[in-house]
Amino acid sequence: MIYVIFAIFLAACFAAGSTGGLFPPGDWYARLKKPWWTPPNWLFPAAWTILYLCMATAGARVAMSPDNALAMALWALQIALNGLWTPVFFGLRRMGLGLVVLGALWLSVAATLVALWQVDTIAGLLFVPYLVWVSVAGALNLSVLRLNPDVAR
Amino acid sequence: MIYVIFAIFLAACFAAGSTGGLFPPGDWYARLKKPWWTPPNWLFPAAWTILYLCMATAGARVAMSPDNALAMALWALQIALNGLWTPVFFGLRRMGLGLVVLGALWLSVAATLVALWQVDTIAGLLFVPYLVWVSVAGALNLSVLRLNPDVAR
Questions:
Q1: If both were cysteines, with which of A58, A132, B35, B73 could A123 make a disulfide (CB 3.0 to 4.6 Å apart)?
Q2: What is the pLDDT of residues B105-152, one digit of tens each?
Q3: What are phi and psi of B109, to 5 degrees?
Q4: Would you call A68 and B68 a contact, using CB atoms and an 8 Å cutoff?
Q5: What residue of A is the nearest CA neighbor of B77?
Q6: Which of A77, A84, A116 is most worth mutating to test chain B (most B CB atoms within 10 A of its CB)?
Q7: Which residue of B has its CA nearest to A69?
Q8: What does chain B look like in DSSP terms, one character per residue?
């Protein structure tokens, strides 16, 4: 049963992540000024694949546990926000609104991490890399917004 | 506690639904040939607001219940797919891919309805209007795709 639950959570992750393929960075992003510590493009899908496996594992472990209401509600919230950033940033090219979405995503991921941890320590730990990566993404979004005032909106 | 859980599920709904404001139908949609039974534009946000209240209530009721793993995983999947359709259809204007997303959304909503019902009958019933509305949206997407072969892709 836990493998079915894991597969459904993983499908939710890839549904959100499919926005990455649908709204690719393209020339617009390539031409933006970026900070020196910007991760290379190939790292993003690789990192997200690992994060999705961690997120789905955490979701499945806690779904199978009692007293999971808060964690399950927050897991749903963070995946809805996760799928929102790429269409806003790469689709609409609205960097400022993208930063707002990332801020909301960061808060929801942090809250989910704490709620998962209260049910299952391993599930909470599995959300740590995700929170780190969203922090990096937020710093990158902020830097790009500041470095490109001419195209920022 | 159930009100906090309800509010978080409702926030997830509005995160997915915010794509409706970010990728508005606009002139492109207005100029498309549409079937005679197309609902008026004002009905969409009104219907979604009611559906979100039903979806969040169903989510909160089942989150507070035992043996909710399958229902909670599916609730997360359907909200991730829910937020995907508008960027695909109105953002990318890819009607064919939009129909694929709606098909996946329909299946996930139907599965969530059944899984919710097994835990809590009222929660299952609260997903019935959602499934009906996604069926209407799917029929509309298919009709628009067929009526506008010149712009369909």
A1: A58
A2: 999 999 999 999 999 999 999 999 999 999 999 999 999 999 998 886
A3: -70, -40
A4: yes
A5: A12
A6: A77
A7: B63
A8: -HHHHHHHHHHHHHHHHHHHHHS--HHHHHHS---TTPPPTTHHHHHHHHHHHHHHHHHHHHHTSSS-HHHHHHHHHHHHHHHHHHIIIIIS--HHHHHHHHHHHHHHHHHHHHHHHHH-HHHHHHTHHHHHHHHHHHHHHHHHHHH-TTT--
